[in-house]
Amino acid sequence: MRSAEQFDISGKVDKNNPIYKFYEKDVSNYLKKFGGKRITDKQGVEWTEVPVKKEWGKEPVDAFGKIMLNPLFLGAGIATAAVVGANLLKKKK
Does any domain span residue 43? Predict the structure, then answer.
């Protein structure tokens, strides 16, 4: 037998909920980097509105960040790949 789903429609928000805190603090701060502004409508509902610029469509996605390739790290990766490749070739013979 299925139990009926229950939803809290009281309008109360659990401000101690970690997901609520994440969106209120971290996501709101992140959106401010893009010109996001806090909006409140006449019913008291709040959200962060971000203006979207057409030129952003051709830029790299910032959400995943950018890394700087360290030449030493890159060289170590190539050297490791060469050693692994050489060892695989030896095993085939």
Answer: yes
In tens digits, the chain (93 residues) has pLDDT values of: 666 667 666 767 788 888 888 888 888 888 888 899 999 999 888 889 999 888 888 887 766 555 555 555 555 555 566 655 665 566 555
Domains contained in the chain, number:
1
pTM above 0.70, yes or no: no
What one-character-per-residue DSSP string does 26-81 give? IIHHHHHTTT-EEEE-TT--EEEE----GGGGGSPPSTT---PPPHHHHHHHHHHH
67 located within any domain: yes
Range of the domain at 53: 18-92
Residue 3 lies in a domain: no
